[in-house]
Amino acid sequence: MENKEIKTKPELINQQSFEFLKKYINNPSPVGFESGGQKLWLEYIKPFVDTSFVDPYGTAVGIINPDHPFKIVIEAHADEISWFVNYITPEGLIYLKRNGGVDHQIAPGSRVFIHGRKGLVKAVFGWPAIHTRLHNPDTKEPSPKVDNLFLDCGARSKKEVEDLGVHIGSVVTYQDGFDELANDFYIGRAFDNRIGGFMIAEVARLLKEKNITLPYGLYIVNAVQEEIGLRGAEMIARRIKPNIAVVTDVTHDTSTPMISKIIEGDCVCGKGPSLAYGPAVHNKLLNLVQEVAEKNEIPVQYRAVSRSTGTDTESFAYAHEGCPSVLISIPLRYMHTTVEMLHKSDINETIRLMFETLQVLNPDTDLNYL
Ligand SMILES: [Zn+2]
Questions:
Q1: How far, in Å, is the centroid of ligand 1 from the Cα of 113?
Q2: What is the whole-number distance in angstroms between the Cα of residue 298 and the centre of ligand 1?
Q3: Distance from the CA of 193 to the center of ligand 1, in angstroms?
Q4: What's the CA gap between 148 and 126, in Å, rounded?
Q5: 215 Cα–ligand 1 center, Å
Q6: Which of 23, 38, 48, 359 has an alpha carbon within 20 to 30 A of 294's alpha carbon?
Q7: Ligand 1 centroid vs 178 CA: distance in angstroms?
Q8: In angstroms, rounded to a whole number, what is the distance separating the alpha carbons of residues 61 and 221?
């Protein structure tokens, strides 16, 4: 058998950054209540940037060359889908509303934290036992829906719930944390899109460690409130008014069962970042990223979007007079579940692609369409 030469690329993530990744993923960052995660992120990124600020709704920004008039953004979103306490029954059970597109189908039997006034309160999504569900052969099995899912925290009256510090509007997050599987696969809650926050922070670290001088101002943006309509990015794009935006988010690995490649396209974890074609994605900027990938032997995958990428890319592209934007996505399995899964090599390659792209871009980069 032919022994093909395997090119080993240098690892980008070091032990310290890996420790940060685990801590960042295990820390809850519910939509609208991202401050805890943003604090961790800012602490991590501060040594790598010249200055930083936080906007009124908590979007965190690290800046390299803050005085430069030409501004490039690299962006991810910091928020995590979660639930809101909506109604407490006289018996002390808790009904919820969604905060972002949290998946009702995975809820039964899950453990959660309710973020109450007195701190975290443990609870579970209760669900009728299989024996009691199947009692009557004429009735269909109940399927989980927002209006039949409830939390049980051990309290047996509304007062007992309230005494724990739980109130209407308390946010609820799953307990599941970071873990490693075989063959360099990672699982965790809300890798969507805190893996993006991690990757842009790593880009800042590499720029600093490799002593790279950029001919423009670089804004490393970890935006809030993406999951409920790209709101954080909208706010910060108006504030920064960048000249170019490089956005990163997750995209679906479509190689697992029950996903149509005809509809969702072909994308697999481990085969590199995915580049999207879509009206908000600037063609010339996308070409430039493709060339960077080719030159640096970074594998990429492609997808096409209809109308919108559904990411912060639109917020940047359309925020002011038009900001050339590009989307670099990392493939992810089981999005919006508690076991979102991705591959280490894609993290490395996505970081590398952003890092190399930033060294090619400059204020004279010609992005004119005509
Ligand atoms: Zn999402």
A1: 20
A2: 25
A3: 7
A4: 10
A5: 33
A6: 48
A7: 17
A8: 5
| Nearest CA-CA partner of 265 in 254, 250, 251 | 254
User: For residue 209, how far is its CA from the centre of ligand 1 (angstroms)?
Assistant: 31
DSSP class of 361: -
Measured from the Cβ of residue 363, the count of other Cβ atoms closer than 10 Å reads 14
Place of tokens 């899912």: 149
CA of 363 to the centre of ligand 1 (A): 32
The per-residue pLDDT for range 175-186, each reduced to its tens digit, is 999 999 999 999
Residue 179 CB partners (closer than 8 Å, separation 6+): 186, 187, 188
Distance 120 CA to ligand 1 centre (A): 24
- What would the pLDDT profile of 238-290 be if each residue is shown by its tens digit? 999 999 999 999 999 999 999 999 999 999 999 999 999 999 999 999 999 99
Over residues 65-102, the pLDDT tens digits come to 999 999 999 999 999 999 999 999 999 999 999 999 99
259 Cα: distance to centroid of ligand 1 (angstroms) = 17
User: Are the beta carbons of 267 and 252 closer than 8 angstroms?
Assistant: yes
DSSP string, 100-148: SS--GGG-TT-EEEEEETTEEEEEEEE---HHHHTS-TTSPPP---TTT
CA-angle at 320, arms to 366 and 99, nearest 5°: 120
β-strands 111-116, 60-64: how paired? Answer: unpaired
**333 C-alpha to center of ligand 1: Å?**
12
**How far apart are the CA of 205 and the centre of ligand 1, in A?**
25
- Please state the pTM of the whole predicted model: 0.96
Q: Is omega for the bond preceding 368 within 30 degrees of 0, making it cis?
A: no
| pLDDT for the residue 2 | 47
Q: What is the tens place of the pLDDT at every residue in 39-60?
A: 999 999 999 999 999 999 999 9
